[in-house]
């Protein structure tokens, strides 16, 4: 947009050259869009708005052009905050509490992006929006209810990676706060003795004094009503009035400190115990929390608690990892621990040394086992799946090939159970290639010995048969002396063969013993 030609367009008109797109075409695209679109000039005023946006907010074009874009927000301060974010990062997306021309409010999902004037390089804003709440005229549900449902439904995806749980909590608190019209949303935790309360995560609207990082002593004297109820696991609404309907000084002081007129506190449980709460502050006059909103916000707190519980479980596992690692490193066999997604959680020194010997990655924890050992065949995955499915240990022995090297691995997979289901699998593996080679050599040696002994037995029989012939021929001689000498030599040879037969029997028994016990 050329700043010389687009200072203030007439109602319903867009002017200024656009590279690759004529002004008439651009206007047609914007006007026919089902999304609400407006163009904001460098002074923060609306330069153009299409019919969808005008219908959404209930204005006509002449009432919008030249007016500050912050009038679209229920809170102008929040509008300036969103615009500042868009100008600093180039884009901002979120759900806002919007204000119609008739002063009614609704939720709108908007996207703000910066656009640079090709002629002057000055920054303009393009605002695109859709209505996030229910249609106007529906009296049985506030306009923000559907937006709140969507905000809660989008939360689980943020908490998939427990390593990024803190920014996920911050983003969730911000979106919940914007959707439900809160001026502050925060997560507060009790200390172990439940005497101190500290705010660890917080989102607050522009103009609100942040409380993050502050701690306060709860139990100097009589504890406040809301603290006692939260510790009992009850959801509490603080509005400055006691249970008997009289003004409550301590609650009023609490609300004044937070700059709020009402506050909702939903207990946060970890492993069944209340460890803190998530608070929602409202600052509008006559502010109140509808039962449906409380139910949705309670579901959001439950999602955050589940993520924190999972993070705590992993922390406990990592805390004990040091002891596990010392034990595992003392084992000469390779030992790995994987979860059900086959991500490596632990690996001992023997496994790391084996990977290094094969030229594989040695920084293995947190990675998929098939990424670490790429030559594992698909059958390996099937073995892990079988252990997860059956919950029973499994022993296997198979040949693997890495490059020009062939090895034989003997593995035992042992399931580890949590809450009755397989959560992790311990694999103990040994490279038995050399052992197999020795066993093959021994088998070949035993086979050769057997063949030699059989041949020896045949040779002994072959020697005895000619001796019998020699002796029969000697007895036919007329010379008794010669016959006697021949008979004595035949007996001597037969005695030697008998001794060999005895040694053959002993060798046979020794060979059987070796086969059985070696």
UniProtKB/TrEMBL annotation:
Ranges of residues in domain PAS: 22-78
Cross-referenced Pfam families: GAF (PF01590), HisKA (PF00512), PAS_4 (PF08448), PAS_9 (PF13426)
InterPro entries from the UniProt entry: GAF, GAF-like_dom_sf, HisK_dim/P_dom, HisK_dim/P_sf, PAS, PAS-like_dom_sf, PAS_4
Gene3D superfamilies, sorted: 3.30.450.40, PAS domain
PROSITE patterns the record matches: PAS
CDD domains: HisKA, PAS
Protein name, as recorded: PAS domain-containing protein
């Amino acid at each position: 947009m050329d700043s010389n030609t687009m200072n203030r367009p007439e109602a319903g008109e867009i002017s200024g050259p656009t590279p690759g797109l004529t002004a008439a075409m651009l206007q047609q695209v914007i006007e026919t869009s089902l999304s609400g679109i407006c163009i904001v000039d460098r002074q923060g005023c609306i330069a153009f708005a299409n019919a969808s946006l005008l219908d959404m907010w209930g204005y006509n074009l002449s009432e919008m052009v030249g007016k500050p874009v912050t009038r679209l927000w229920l809170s102008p301060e929040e509008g300036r905050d969103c615009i500042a974010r868009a100008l600093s990062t180039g884009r901002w997306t979120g759900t806002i509490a919007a204000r119609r021309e008739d002063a009614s409010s609704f939720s709108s999902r908007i996207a703000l992006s910066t656009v640079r004037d090709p002629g002057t390089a000055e920054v303009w804003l393009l605002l695109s929006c859709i209505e996030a709440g229910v249609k106007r005229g529906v009296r049985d549900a506030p306009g923000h209810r559907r937006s709140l449902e969507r905000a809660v439904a989008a939360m689980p995806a943020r908490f998939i990676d427990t390593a990024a749980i803190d920014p996920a909590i911050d983003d969730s608190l911000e979106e919940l706060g914007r959707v439900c019209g809160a001026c502050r949303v925060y997560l507060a935790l009790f200390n172990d003795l439940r005497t101190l309360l500290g705010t660890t995560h917080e989102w607050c609207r522009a103009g609100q004094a942040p409380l993050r990082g502050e701690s306060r002593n709860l139990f100097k004297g009589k504890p406040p009503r809301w603290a006692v109820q939260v510790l009992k696991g009850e959801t509490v609404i603080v509005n400055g009035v006691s249970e008997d309907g009289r003004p409550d000084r301590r609650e009023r002081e609490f609300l004044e400190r937070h700059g709020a007129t009402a506050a909702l506190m939903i207990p946060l449980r970890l492993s069944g115990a209340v460890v803190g709460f998530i608070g929602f502050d409202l600052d509008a006059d006559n502010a109140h929390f509808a039962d449906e909103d409380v139910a949705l916000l309670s579901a959001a707190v439950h999602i955050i608690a589940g993520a924190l519980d999972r993070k705590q479980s992993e922390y406990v596992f990592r805390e004990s990892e040091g002891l596990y690692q010392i034990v595992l490193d003392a084992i000469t066999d390779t030992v790995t621990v994987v979860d059900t997604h086959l991500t490596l959680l632990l690996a001992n020194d023997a496994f790391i040394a084996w990977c290094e010997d094969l030229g594989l990655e040695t920084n293995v924890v947190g990675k998929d086992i098939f990424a670490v050992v790429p030559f594992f065949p698909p059958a390996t995955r099937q073995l892990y799946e079988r252990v997860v499915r059956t919950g029973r240990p499994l022993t296997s022995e198979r040949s693997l090939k890495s490059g020009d090297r062939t090895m034989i691995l003997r593995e035992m997979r042992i399931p580890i159970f949590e809450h009755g289901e397989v959560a992790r699998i311990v694999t103990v593996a040994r490279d038995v290639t050399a052992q197999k080679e020795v066993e093959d050599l021994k088998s070949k040696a035993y086979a050769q010995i057997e063949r030699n002994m059989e041949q020896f037995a045949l040779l002994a029989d072959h020697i005895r048969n000619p001796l019998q012939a020699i002796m029969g021929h000697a007895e036919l001689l007329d010379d008794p002396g010669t016959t006697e000498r021949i008979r004595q030599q035949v007996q001597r040879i037969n005695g030697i063969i008998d001794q060999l037969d005895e040694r053959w029997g002993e060798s046979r028994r020794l060979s059987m013993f070796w086969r059985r016990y070696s």
